[in-house]
Write a structure and sequence with these properties.
By secondary structure, the protein is α/β, with parallel strands linked by helices. Helix content is about 45%, strand content about 15%. It has 14 helices and 15 strands. The protein has a six-stranded mixed sheet with strand order 3-2-7-8-9-10, sandwiched between helices. It has a five-stranded mixed sheet with strand order 5-11-12-15-14, with helices on one face. The longest helix has 23 residues.
Length: about 400
């Protein structure tokens, strides 16, 4: 530590020449070490640990694993999107230049919502989707996971300032119905609450279900920020290009925060996304549209994964949309309750670590998508990503069949 600190201070005060320079270095060291002892803001407590780093690192340490945990396609994006990006990079050279409120969060939630709320100085308030009972042997669906209207209404108070909605939902794959959205809209209007609607999976909807943007409901446009993602829309998750739609009364504040934090992303990526949308406008609603082709393809991937998991004894919850499905591992929990791990570690986390090391399959534990007090109620689910190439799904099949053979007497 002293070596690095000294190097920084020497850069600031120049070469050591006599007592004056030595005194300057001493002051610099003192100030640096004093700053190092300062405590972080309390709102950061507990959010420095990132479970994604833990499970991704664990997967990378194993020689032969099938990664069904992270939500990225391992097939190529559409050619028109790649061509648009290549054109943006090699074309116009100017594209390389500058160009404590309460927040209600529905559980399960994409895990960044909670730390982002805390970083902004807000207080997360959680309300859980709960599965409805199903008949024995009846397949479960994400549509069976419902909000309790009375519980939801009880979460709204005079201090509630924002409501975070995610539809289709990650990790559950639930597509909220019009009736459910109308309930949320009514409460937001009644309590003068802004709705932040994460709709990055809007084109990934299956089985005839329909994605409805809450901003399209009466009285909601003026109080809704709608978030979209080119990464999910065009299967280019590494581009990190997205957008927000909303009224100028809200957008002006968002622009102020954005330009003083993130500021910008690669201009070529923005140009490529714009050209890809222009292409899609010409094909919209037709069989040639990527927005038509992509959900058809990944629905087949979803069905493939569901059948394969069922053959091994998993109980998948069929998603209505998104990249993901969750599966119930209660049977494994009953048969293998004492997996390695800390006594207070949720079972799903211990199970995923065991599965990576012993079966070569990567998933994400469901409990990380819940607030700490509720994790123990949902530690018998894990999440798989089914938006994968056919070769990856075949490799999954082989892993599962080998596992099944090991269980056969």
């Amino acid at each position: 530590m002293f070596r690095n600190t000294t190097a920084i201070c020497l850069h600031l005060v120049g070469p050591l020449r006599g007592k004056k320079s030595g005194a300057s270095l001493t002051r610099c060291l003192h100030q640096t070490l004093t700053m190092a002892k300062r405590l972080q803001a309390r709102r950061l407590d507990g959010i420095d640990h990132n479970p994604w780093v833990e499970f991704v690192q664990l997967a990378s340490e194993e020689a032969d694993v099938v990664n069904l945990g992270q939500g990225f396609p391992d097939f190529s994006p559409p050619e028109f999107a790649v061509e648009a990006f290549q054109h943006a990079v090699s074309g116009d050279f100017m594209l390389n230049q500058y160009t404590k409120a309460f927040v209600i969060i529905i559980e399960p939630f994409f895990d960044c919502y909670e730390p982002m709320t805390l970083m902004a100085g807000g207080r997360p308030v959680f309300v859980s989707l709960k599965p409805s009972p199903t008949q024995k042997g009846e397949p479960d669906s994400s549509s069976n996971w419902q909000l309790d209207p009375t519980e939801l209404a009880s979460k709204f108070t005079s201090r509630t300032k924002a409501f975070i909605l995610n539809t289709p939902n990650n990790p559950l794959g639930k597509v909220f119905s019009k009736e459910e959205l109308e309930l949320v809209a009514s409460l937001c209007q009644q309590h003068d609450v802004v709705c932040i609607s994460d709709e990055v999976y809007q084109w990934m909807v299956f089985d005839g279900f329909q994605h409805i943007s809450i901003a399209s409901l009466p009285g909601m446009w003026e109080r809704t920020l709608t978030i979209g993602s080119a990464g999910k829309t065009f299967s280019v998750t590494g581009w990190k290009v997205g957008w927000v739609l909303g009224p100028d009364s809200l957008m002006k504040h968002l622009r102020t925060v954005h330009q003083n934090s993130v500021y910008h992303c690669a201009t070529q990526g923005q140009a490529a996304v714009a050209q890809s949308f222009e292409r899609e406008q010409l094909h919209f609603g037709r069989p040639s549209s990527y927005f038509v082709q992509l959900p058809q393809y990944i629905q087949r991937c979803r069905d493939h994964m569901i059948q394969s998991l069922q053959s091994m004894g998993f109980r998948p919850v069929t998603p209505q949309g998104s990249y993901f499905l969750i599966t119930d591992i209660s049977d494994f929990k009953n048969k293998m309750p004492d997996l390695p791990g800390a006594a207070d570690e949720p079972y799903d986390r211990r199970f995923v670590k065991w599965m990576i090391k012993n079966k070569g399959l990567v998933a994400i534990p469901m409990s990380i998508f819940f607030s700490l007090p509720h994790q123990k109620f949902f530690d018998h689910y894990i999440r798989f990503c089914f938006v994968k190439d056919e070769s990856t799904l075949r490799a999954m099949d082989q892993k599962l069949q080998k596992w099944k053979a090991e269980l056969t007497p």
